[in-house]
Amino acid sequence: MKLLATGKVKWFVYQKVVIVFIVFLIPLISMNIWVNYKGMSFTKNAILDSSLAGASFYSKQLDKEIYFIRNQQLQFQEDKNIQKLSFRGESLEKYEEVELIGNAEDLLNRIIASSEYVVNAGVYVKSLGKTISGKTGITSIPNMEYEKISSLLNVKQKPSFYRIGDEIFLIETGDNAELWSYIEISKGKLLEALNQIATLYQESEVFLGSNELGNILSTTDDQLVSTEVLRLITKQDQFNSDIPEINKVNGKSYFIAHNFISSLNLSLIMYVNQNEITRPLSQFNTLLYVSFVIAIVVMILYSYSVNLMIHRPLSKLVKTFRMVETDNLDLVIESKTKDEFYYIFNSFNRMASRLKRSIEENYEQKIALQHSQLKQLQSQINPHFLYNSFFNIYMMCKVGDSDSAAELSQKLGSYYQYITRSGSDEVPFFKEYQHALDYCEIQCIRFSNRISFEYEEIPVLANAILVPRLIIQPVVENVFEHAFEDDSRQGVVYIGAECEEGIVIITIEDNGILLKDEDIEYLQKKLAMGLKQVEKTGLINVNNRLQLKYGPDSGLFVSRSKYGGLRAELIVKYESKEV
Question: Fold for domain 424-573?
Fold first, then answer.
């Protein structure tokens, strides 16, 4: 299973968890606010509708009562005895006159008794020259009631009711003004009815009025508010709207409801301070704010708890892993809680301890293996190479070529000094490269110049690069031993090197014709086995040493050379810190 490494972390896990929590919580809070708002709106409308229904009920009751009184007044005027008294008042006998007047008195008293709104009921009969009243009885004119009613009838435009001072009258005339009937409406009872409507709310006021007559009767002495409310109602009537409204009057918001009293041609208007109507809803606002604050507190506490229980342990674990990446395994994570992180931290501590021991053991094994391989390689000095070299020096001395003998002796001494000395397993690359060239010169002398070599100069960068000892010479030795064996052709060995930041590539090629494709494929398979290859000599030894130190991307790779023989590439991929 491959674990894919992530890039730069932009969001921590706990931040994502908190954001997801908030994303899920916001619709819940929004829904709660919306439901509360809708509930408050519905409740407010229900309260207003209830207020409107209450005012409408009382206004209709009042309207019905006034209509009832008017109907009785009209029935009184149409009574045949009253009509007889009006038409024949002068010609009636005394007995019949008394009887008809008594009958009129009975009818008037019935009207007074029929409604608590009626204070007095009376009639003026012109033919008798008298007024008949439930309050003053039978009185000849002129009298106070007659003067009062006659003055009211002088109004040119007949109103629906008449008012003089604090008295309100319903007046009907008939028979060409030969008969007047009048009913006095109790202002106190009307005011009592208005007060009954006003008791729906403590801060409500009710009044009767119209645009022409103004405020007729009110439960308050504050005429400024009622006048402004009446103006607003008049403006509303211009648009033919009977819908109650909430308007500001003198800086306060009022719920205003009005109903038309057709029997009086007046509007019954109720206005209520909006705060009183919405006061029961204020607790819902308070609860809404409290719930909103609680939601914020919950989000803060949740974020803090997630940070405390998840983010901090995870951050500690991430920091520890980053320290492990720097090869620091002397780490111990402590957990104060007995939760899942306690198990993870303990598992990590055990893993780090085991990993440290494993790395130490593996490292020691690698070092030991490299030392043993190097010692083994150093011990694999071909005695024939040494014998032949000494024989070549002997023959040079015999023929008097002392300069060549001296040069060969010097090269041979440097060669054996380099491969047999103890010390560091790593040497500067240019020394390893020069050692391989010295070996080539020795071999070319041995083979009587039947074999030559060509090489490339290495860059200055090679002076600072360290490589393992004896990684080039074994490959070159393999060429001299196998590429030109029993071959009469002129052999050439080509050596080159490339040095870049982080990588060194050494190429050894030859123009031999003895190597078959099957041999190259067999060698490639053996090299591909890497550290699994049990053979520890020659090319396999070099390949294993490079892979042990630098990893599987380094090592020895072979292929067919463009010159016809074998092409061997030594690749060393090192880290810059080793430079």
Answer: Heat Shock Protein 90 (3.30.565)
